[in-house]
Design goal:
14 helices, two-stranded antiparallel sheet, 4-stranded mixed sheet, 54% helix, Arc Repressor Mutant, subunit A, Alpha-Beta Plaits, 315 residues, 3 domains, alpha+beta
């Protein structure tokens, strides 16, 4: 049985072609919110979670329909949104509204967390819904003594958030002993200070670490991050948005470092930033621990960063 019993023409119903497949929606979302310029098909595929052939096919359809433009020639051509198209202008607003809705949800949850005392060490998004109506799971790290009561109080506060955003939120509470069994690379930081990026993926060191060791590891991570921003400048845009979101909610004493980082990201070139990340200056050493780019990396990006220092770190 055919799911569609009558055809609709492109002139009167262009949205059928524009938003008619998940690959179209994913690619347009990437080009709308995640990059500031043209994008090659291979990069678009990686960001959108598509195969390269699938992305190339979808980009070709969007190009032929007139929704995106092609830049360059031969095998090096790239794609970008046709900003002059009125329908695309409306589509950009739609993707911005989608992004704003998620960010409003995050701000609301953070506010409920901050209203409870004592504050948890960290809260993260442990899993996103796998289907419409599925649960959205938060993980939190707290003291053993306060964990049960905090989870109970936060559960009450989140009931209203669930009604407002029409979703189901589940909570998983952990102590420091519990998180040794978790792969924190898979989680999205939400509040507080997450444990070390790589402590759960490596054997635990039984002897106390010297101060030099964590500083050295942070420097190695910063070197890899310097390489990453030179390859993908959209990381800077994501970091700026992250800082703006934090400042919107007021982070107390942390606001000073956040504002300083915002100025650095606004005024430094990519090359200057790369040098600053690995500088031995007092200012660089002071700000290195709060580098906002570490907070916006997704699971794959974190894994690439920590994997890149494995050989160096073990020598």
């Amino acid at each position: 049985m055919r799911p569609i019993v009558s055809e609709q023409d492109f002139l009167r119903h262009p949205l059928n072609e524009l938003l008619g497949t998940r690959s179209h929606v994913r690619l347009l979302r990437v080009m709308s919110n995640e990059v500031d310029g043209p994008l090659a098909a291979t990069d678009a595929a990686k960001r959108a979670g598509l195969t390269v052939p699938g992305a190339q096919k979808a980009l070709g359809r969007l190009f032929r329909a007139g929704f995106i433009s092609r830049v360059g020639g031969g095998r090096k051509h790239q794609y970008e949104i046709r900003f002059s198209d009125k329908l695309m202008q409306a589509t950009l607003k739609l993707f911005q509204a989608e992004k704003d809705r998620y960010e409003q949800l995050v701000r609301t949850i953070k506010k409920e967390i901050k209203d409870l005392i004592p504050h948890p060490h960290a809260v993260w998004i442990q899993s996103f819904p796998r289907e419409v109506g599925g649960p959205f799971t938060l993980g939190l790290l707290h003291n053993t003594r306060d964990l049960t009561n905090f989870v109970r109080q936060l559960r009450i506060k989140l009931n209203q958030v669930e009604k407002e955003f029409d979703l189901t939120i589940e909570l998983e509470g952990y102590t420091k002993a519990d998180i040794l069994d978790l792969d924190l690379h898979e989680f999205t930081p939400l509040y507080g200070i997450m444990p070390s990026l790589d402590h759960t993926s490596r054997p635990q060191i039984k002897s106390p670490l010297t101060r030099l060791e964590p500083d050295r590891r942070m420097l190695l991570l910063s070197r890899e991050l310097a390489k990453a921003i030179q390859q993908d400048s959209s990381l800077l845009r994501r970091a700026k948005n992250h800082i703006d979101s934090l400042l919107h909610d007021d982070q107390g004493m942390a606001n000073r470092d956040l504002m300083e980082w915002r100025g650095i990201l606004d005024n430094y070139s990519v090359q200057q930033l790369a040098r600053f990340f690995t500088s031995s200056s007092e200012r660089a050493n002071r700000l290195r621990q709060s580098n906002p780019l570490f907070a916006i990396l997704n699971a794959d990006e974190k894994a690439q960063l920590t994997n890149a220092i494995e050989g160096t770190d073990d020598t």
